[in-house]
Amino acid sequence: MPPRRVITGRSQEPRRRFAEELRLLRTEQGLSLRKLGEALGWDWSLFGKMESGQTLGSPEVVQGLDQYYGTPGLLLALWELAVGDPSQFKEQYRRYMLLEAEAMSLWHFGVSILPGLLQTDGYAREVLALGGAKGKELDQAVEARTGRRKLLEGDDAPPFRALLSEAVLRTPLGDVGEWREQLEFLLDASERPNITLQVLPQGVGLHGLVSTAVMFLRLLDGKTVAYTENAHRGELVEENSSVERLQRAYDAMRDVAMSPVESRKFALRMLEEVPCEGST
């Protein structure tokens, strides 16, 4: 697997960081704006405006650039930070998203909802709407979140382990069709060689992460950081002893979780229990 691109260390302002990265990626490949436009089939002047900070472009354009440059999810993560209201993203979350895009491997524990990297459009829309997003803001947030799924696609995609509380798969969406689509997507994703799905049975009782979701990121320098979330706040954890404490709790749950094969069977049972649309 080729080394993942490191993007930390440049401008901390989201819009400027996004423009800088676009310009650097193009110049590193010796491309003119016109050649880039011809390669991707968009007006070259759009890329010039994006690199100068005049516009951010659309998720579709940014995904096309990610694919062209071989930076799956990286530019889209920067775009998501740049397009949002600055007050919407705490500095720790900005840093987390950038680290996520360059992580060598990821481990997640979900206590109540699916991780964003495994959410369908319908699931993301319902979750983000509950958080207050609406209208065009909601549409952009959904496109940005689900576009980040590309991070887990392709030959150089990092390994990702999703350890989910049983409650996550027993909490349906309001729309039956959307919930069926989400479970089908989860099952399909779990068949990819880089994605491992495990379910933690409710019967295990209390545990060290009973009210906390967490994502662990192993970075290029071998260090592991964690991002924890509860109903009210998120926190980037970088101090070694704190990360190790969280890892011990995660490992203890993984030891008593269903195996990947059992977990797929459980998810399939949940899918089979979803009523067909129009049935009574």
UniProtKB/TrEMBL annotation:
Xref: PROSITE patterns: HTH_CROC1 (PS50943)
Q: Which Pfam families match?
A: DUF5753, HTH_31
Taxonomic path: Bacteria, Bacillati, Actinomycetota, Actinomycetes, Kitasatosporales
Q: Which CDD domains match?
A: HTH_XRE
Q: Protein name, please?
A: Transcriptional regulator
- Organism of origin is Streptomyces colonosanans
Extract the SUPFAM superfamilies matched here.
Answer: lambda repressor-like DNA-binding domains (SSF47413)
GO MF, one term, reads: DNA binding
InterPro entries for this protein: Cro/C1-type_HTH, DUF5753, Lambda_DNA-bd_dom_sf
According to the entry, every stretch annotated as the HTH cro/C1-type domain falls at 22-75
